[in-house]
Amino acid sequence: MKVMLFFDGKNFYKGFLHFVQQRSRNEHFFIHFTRLAEWLVQQVGGTSFRGAYYYTATDPQDPEQRGVENFLKSLELEPGFFVIRLEKRTRSLFCPECNAHIPYTQEKGVDTRMVADMLQLAAVHAYDTLVLMSGDADFTPAVEAIHRLGKVVYIATWGEHGLSPQLRSAAFSHLDLIKGTELFLRSEEGTFISREEPDPERYLPTFLEALERAENHFQHGYVGLSFFLNRWKDPWLPEDPQLRRLLLERAVERGLVEIYDAPETGDRAVRRVTQENRTPDLKEEGR
User: Fold this and answer.
1) Cα–Cα distance for residue pair 142/157, rounded to 1 Å
2) Under 8 Å CB-to-CB from 198, ≥6 apart: which residues?
3) Per-position pLDDT tens, the chain of length 287
4) Domain range for residue 152?
5) Which CATH number covers residue 121?
6) CB distance 113 to 55 below 8 Å
7) Do 59 and 158 fall within a single domain?
């Protein structure tokens, strides 16, 4: 079974940064793209890797473009990888208050080019299975069209971050890139990361900051315990409910967080322990 990979560069890199920031703010990680391709082909039951296409918009006038270009050139040296560069378009907005034109860039054309190439290659039977590295809902009609051509399309993203429900429904299945990181993600020292459980101590300050943001969001109510552990979205808080629960237990043990019964509803709720709300007996879950 022939497998091709298509990378929406901006979407893929954004999800990667989100994952790295959740894991650590101090370490730097790099993707071994050949290993990533091997893992993806294996996940979809493929027998033949027929190429990976990485689409991105570039701006030659951007002084930071040199670093990006070095990355793209190194990616092109990976076996079977091809980079498709499209130029960013500079636009400007007029501000009537300050009487100035404010320049900005747009990455127009990337999605359109990707869709055209995916459909064309499907029509000539260049692949049997396509893995799309993007969670953008704009690709939904293309995925549905490729399925009608008799091909299979998987969606691969970094966890659920940035994954459109519409695109997920249209795809044959979803691949979580985080599950393969011990095989293709390496640290700046060159070692590959392991499946070892992350150290909760690293995330405890982040956990407390996220809880504070949740309290501010529901300043006239309360933060439901189950909601915060399973559904609260925060850019810095780990998404794994098991890790969140472990962090909660550590915070409760240290007297930093209190689990209590919300007034009127009686629902289990959670809040930071402050001088204002400190109670003689802090309720601890499961004790």
Assistant:
1) 17
2) 23, 238, 243
3) 999 999 999 999 999 988 887 776 556 788 999 999 999 999 999 999 999 999 998 876 666 667 788 889 999 999 999 999 887 655 555 556 666 655 445 556 788 999 999 999 999 999 999 999 999 999 999 999 999 999 999 999 998 888 999 999 999 999 999 989 888 988 765 566 655 555 666 678 888 988 999 999 888 789 999 999 988 887 667 777 878 888 899 899 999 999 999 887 889 999 999 876 655 544 444 33
4) 2-187
5) 3.40.50.1010
6) yes
7) yes
Cα 272 from Cα 211, distance rounded (Å): 7
**Number of domains the chain contains:** 2
Q: How far, in Å, are 192, 225, 233, 259 from residue 250 at the CA level? A: 28, 15, 20, 12
Q: What are phi and psi of 98, to 5 degrees?
A: -105, 0
The DSSP-derived string for 84-107 is: EEEEPEEEEEEETTTTEEEEEEE-
d(CA 52, CA 5): 4
The pair phi, psi for residue 141, each rounded to 5°, is: -60, -35
Task: Looking at the structure, tell me whether residues 142 and 59 fall in a common domain.
Answer: yes
d(CA 12, CA 262): 41
